């Protein structure tokens, strides 16, 4: 009984022997198929030889017709030739490669054997015959013979395979499927409390592989759980670092925005600074000149501002400057741009503002600031303004922002020379008044 049990315990080598037996049967079948292929090649070689002979014979008969350009005779001969069901097409080319006649239709199928035969008259080549020989009938005959032979082999082989398959299914395929199913079940479940094992009781090599795999898989499972815990910890730390980095990035963007704003604005009043205003004015004036658009500039000067600083102090002077800037920001239009040019000088660039519109803006601003004294701390200070205005298009030729600014500056100085606290427009000055300012 024990000896009988040992005989049934086949190792891998014995099991492979069973597989090789089946492979032998397959080899016998393959040998039969190769024999048929050899017969097929012989038949095709014979067809090729006969095609060469036929094309040579036809080429010799066509020589005189080709030399004499007897197209009708050539066409008749080719037409008779393709009546043979094995001849797919025939074509005659002259010595220059011109098509003289053709019968049948040339196809690109793999079952066509093509022949090219020179047409000679004596030692001269006067043309070329192209002929396609169909191998369909030959192939069909070979297919029938192959089918009959393979059918016989299949019937015999199937009977043997049924027995062999039953043996292989139990001795080789079953252990492989058990191992494969266990491996598939374990996919995605590496974090389970206990690792899944391969349940295979066998004393052969498959059983040994399963046992060793179970041990290795248990060790890998423990290592994976440890690695996952470390990854989770690192991921948590990375998320915290990323959150800090995002916060720092947002803070940096905010600081950059503030720096960008400080680069173009006056820190005391919040209006645009002189540098930014000059660049803006260059573009706006150039566009106005190029497009013949209306634009005005208002220059504002706080009268006797130096005396205010000396009498009341620079803090009071700064507060007055801030209040004047606030009044300007409240009363200009959305399309206008205001700037602090210096300690007591402010500019307003008024887009699409005519002479009348710019005067209205200037008068309203002048009246709002000078209507009543400014109270700064315990001091009540009367503040007056001098305003000079220029508008494009102008009565004079203006081709630069510098010239346009000069016009507004002349109007401002005219107001200052005439008692200050005055609004003057360049267009209201005659040539004598302008020349006196210059």
Major sheet attributes: 5 strands, mixed
User: What string, H for helix and E for strand, traces the elements in order?
Assistant: HHHEEEEHHHEHHEEHEEEHEH
Instruction: Based on the coordinates given, report the CATH architecture of the largest domain.
Output: 2-Layer Sandwich
CATH topology of the largest domain: Alpha-Beta Plaits
What is the H level of CATH, i.e. the homologous superfamily of the largest domain? Reverse transcriptase/Diguanylate cyclase domain
Q: Give the tally of structural domains.
A: 3
Distance between the termini: 134 Å
Strand content: 15-25%
CA gyration radius, whole angstroms? 53 Å
Which bin fits the share of residues in helices? 55-70%
Q: Could you name the CATH class of the largest domain?
A: Alpha Beta
Strand order within the widest beta sheet? 6-7-5-10-11
Average pLDDT level: 81
Task: Find the count of extended strands (DSSP E, 2+ residues).
Answer: 11
Which class do the helix and strand fractions yield?
Answer: alpha+beta
Question: Explain this structure to me?
Answer:
With about 450 residues, the protein is of the alpha+beta class. It folds into 3 domains: about 1-140, 2-Layer Sandwich (Beta-Lactamase), CATH 3.30.450; about 190-265, no CATH class; about 275-435, Reverse transcriptase/Diguanylate cyclase domain (Alpha-Beta Plaits, 2-Layer Sandwich), CATH 3.30.70. It is built from 11 helices and 11 strands. The strands form 3 sheets. It has a 5-stranded mixed beta sheet, with helices on both faces. The mean pLDDT is about 80.
List keywords for this structure.
Beta-Lactamase; 5-stranded mixed β-sheet; 3 domains; Alpha-Beta Plaits; 438 residues; alpha+beta; 4-stranded antiparallel β-sheet; single chain
